[in-house]
Amino acid sequence: MPFFYYLVWGLIAILAIGVLSIFLAFFIKIAILLALIAFAYYWFSKAVYYRKQRKNWRH
């Protein structure tokens, strides 16, 4: 009986780890995407700001 009990808990633990790893991978992918989007937006806004500054400086 204890063997069966441990087996059931082992299966539950394996399933939980599998589900958690899938969710973790999904969240890591979303986090990387968000970081890339934020970096691209920051770089773009910086470039636009510098361009505006240059235009103002020229005129």
Structure in words:
The chain is mostly helical and 59 residues long. It has one helix at 2-58. The mean pLDDT is 90.
**End-to-end distance:** 86 Å
Task: Give the tally of structural domains.
Answer: 1
Main beta sheet, described? none
Range of strand content: under 5%
Low-confidence stretches: none
Oligomerization: single chain
Helical content band:
over 70%
Protein name: Membrane protein implicated in regulation of membrane protease activity
Transmembrane segments: 12-44
Organism: Alicyclobacillus tolerans
GO molecular function: peptidase activity
Write the layout of secondary structure elements.
Layout: H1 2-58
List keywords for this structure.
mainly alpha; 0% strand
